[in-house]
Amino acid sequence: MSVVRIEHVYKDYLLGDQKVQALKDITLSFDPGVFLAIAGPSGSGKTTLLNLIGCIDTPTSGRIFINDQDVSGRTADELADLRNRTIGFIFQTFNLLPVLSAAENVEYPLLQRADVTKEERQRRVEYFLDIVGLAKFADHRPNQLSGGQRQRVAIARALAVLPSIVLADEPTANLDHKTGEEILNLMKKINRSFNTTFIFSTHDKRVIAKADRLVRVDDGEISALGVRSESRWSLARNRRSTDVVAQNQQANN
């Protein structure tokens, strides 16, 4: 089973009277538990691709499957429900609510879940704040926390919905080098411990170095796919299927 499968996806935008093609014929699939980086320069289409995977946006044409369920034709409400149950988000600017404490920020997405009791919400908040090392800061508001601590709160919030996928958009961009390394190591540890799929949109070489899969996007098209084999990358260029990467991986084993 693929946690994400994308089939011949195009995404167009209108800028005035002009059509801009942000993505062109994207076909990909990702296995559960992958730690994957979507890399490319600004304007390449990597954030658009991340938003489509996260069901924040919808493709102009083509199909997207999440956990083998076709989400392409779902309504906005259905997509919102899917996001709240399946996908966690980590943003470059943290996106914490300033009037809420760390614990309240982690709890916030769970308030929309009628199937999660108050007791279960509290249990998850305590558990995931402890996982990210912030149990002692549960009552602190974002302005009382460092950048690294705020990103840890964002990670705990993403994990609290028990997602199968965590999407991270430039999660280290507003962090210094040391803090960025700590955050990446934390996410890698969570990935390995919980088999949670992490998909990053990034141009940060540190993120790419931690990834075990790589998708390079240029001008809305896939320019290269990569699989890490121990300390080196096996890259397939100018191909649009992860089957190519699978073949390269088998050749390296």
Q: What features would you describe in this structure?
A:
With about 250 residues, this protein is an alpha/beta fold. The protein has helices at about 45-55, 75-85, 100-105, 120-130, 145-160, 175-195, 205-210, 240-250; strands spanning about 5-15, 20-30, 35-40, 60-65, 70, 85-90, 165-170, 195-200, 215-220, 220-230, 230-235. It has a domain at about 30-60 and about 65-215: 3-Layer(aba) Sandwich (Rossmann fold), CATH 3.40.50. The strands form two sheets. Strands 6-7-8-3-9-10-11 form a seven-stranded mixed beta sheet, sandwiched between helices. The protein has a four-stranded antiparallel beta sheet with strand order 2-1-4-5, with helices on one face. Helix 4 packs across helix 5 (about 145-160). It is globular and about 45 Å long. The two termini are about 20 Å apart.
